[in-house]
Design a protein that fits this description.
Layout: H1 2-18, H2 24-57, H3 60-68, H4 77-92, H5 95-111
Length: about 110
């Protein structure tokens, strides 16, 4: 992914330069502006994946299984997981981050 984005940026800058649309300085400025616009999204992803990894290290899944255990009927587990995923996705702004937080919790609960 990193190599592809570098190649795409170089190709776009080369095409803009070859057509005389942008100078080298304008290409660099456009790249810096675009990279700056990506920082908040990348930061959200890094933090949510970190939270998911921390929940794995703290064994949150087995704790939730021991806490909730048999009180949730199996047929209600998918809708409950969906609602929890929707809430976490909306709160974190990332569906990938929500899944990285939920998989360590819901998979042991489903496997019980």
């Amino acid at each position: 992914l990193l190599w592809a984005s570098i190649a795409a940026n170089l190709m776009a800058a080369g095409m803009a330069r070859a057509q005389g649309l942008l100078t080298v300085a304008e290409c660099v400025e456009a790249f810096q502006h675009g990279a700056g616009q990506m920082v908040p999204g990348v930061l959200v992803l890094v933090l949510t994946f970190s939270l998911g990894h921390a929940s794995q290290l703290l064994h949150v899944g087995p704790f939730v299984v021991s806490l909730v255990g048999d009180s949730i009927p199996i047929p209600l587990l998918p809708p409950a997981g969906f609602l929890l995923a929707a809430l976490l996705s909306a709160a974190s702004g990332s569906s990938w981050g929500a899944m990285s937080m939920l998989f360590p919790i819901l998979l042991p609960l489903a496997a019980r």
